[in-house]
């Protein structure tokens, strides 16, 4: 008789209690996002978040002992993780550096177009910046490294028109992408227009 394969603990189905805890955690995160969108970080108190979620401050601190700072860090890091995974998938396949930058741009603009999420991820607020300091820049730094590596390869093969530092170029490209995120999230620009413009800029880096 064939031996029965042991079930990996991480593959085992979640218990009802575990599912309920995950649901409560996500409800608190969603409540924090909604309060933030309506009143800004300064008014997104633990009490306001608890009221929006229909629970108590005790429950909020049970799931997020550091309070609202921890809540918003987790919200931000969830988006970081998604964008890192998208980048890993894009750069895990062979492709032209410009095509890959376009793919990254599309991923970021997908975030920008989501109600609540886009504004939160693109927000510039000194008080929120301090709370997000431990997680801010995780995705951007990875993207800069990946783009710079592609540009360095192109430069080594004499395919790049510029002799500037690939890392410096990558930093400016990601900065432009972040600016596009902000404009789309605020409804100031159409994502298709910015995506097309960024693609033109990046393709212009290659020798003709």
From TrEMBL:
Q: Which residues bind DNA?
A: 45-64
Question: Residue limits of the HTH tetR-type domain?
Answer: 22-82
UniProt GO MF annotations: DNA-binding transcription factor activity; transcription cis-regulatory region binding
Q: Which UniProt keywords apply?
A: DNA-binding, Transcription, Transcription regulation
Check the record and name the Pfam families matching this protein: TetR_N (PF00440)
Entry-linked PROSITE patterns: HTH_TETR_2 (PS50977)
InterPro entries linked to this entry = Homeodomain-like_sf, HTH-type_TetR-like_transc_reg, HTH_TetR, Tet_transcr_reg_TetR-rel_C_sf
| Name of the protein described by the UniProt record | HTH tetR-type domain-containing protein
Lineage of source species = Bacteria, Bacillati, Actinomycetota, Actinomycetes, Mycobacteriales
């Amino acid at each position: 008789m064939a031996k029965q394969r042991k079930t990996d603990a991480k593959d085992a189905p979640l218990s009802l209690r575990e599912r309920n805890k995950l649901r409560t955690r996500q409800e608190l995160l969603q409540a924090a996002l909604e309060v933030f969108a309506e009143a800004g970080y300064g008014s997104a108190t633990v009490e306001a978040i608890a009221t929006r979620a229909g629970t108590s401050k005790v429950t909020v601190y049970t799931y997020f002992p550091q309070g609202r700072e921890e809540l918003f860090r987790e919200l931000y890091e969830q988006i970081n993780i998604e964008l890192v995974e998208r980048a890993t998938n894009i750069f895990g396949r062979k492709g032209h550096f410009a095509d890959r930058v376009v793919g990254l741009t599309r991923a970021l603009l997908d975030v920008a177009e989501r109600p609540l999420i886009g504004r939160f991820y693109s927000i510039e607020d000194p008080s929120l910046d301090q709370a997000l300091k431990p997680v801010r820049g995780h995705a951007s730094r990875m993207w800069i490294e990946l783009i710079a590596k592609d540009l360095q390869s192109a430069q080594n093969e004499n395919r790049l028109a510029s002799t500037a530092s690939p890392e410096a170029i990558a930093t400016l490209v990601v900065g432009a992408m972040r600016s596009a995120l902000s404009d789309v999230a605020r409804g100031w620009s159409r994502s298709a227009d910015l995506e097309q413009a960024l693609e033109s800029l990046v393709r212009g880096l290659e020798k003709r």
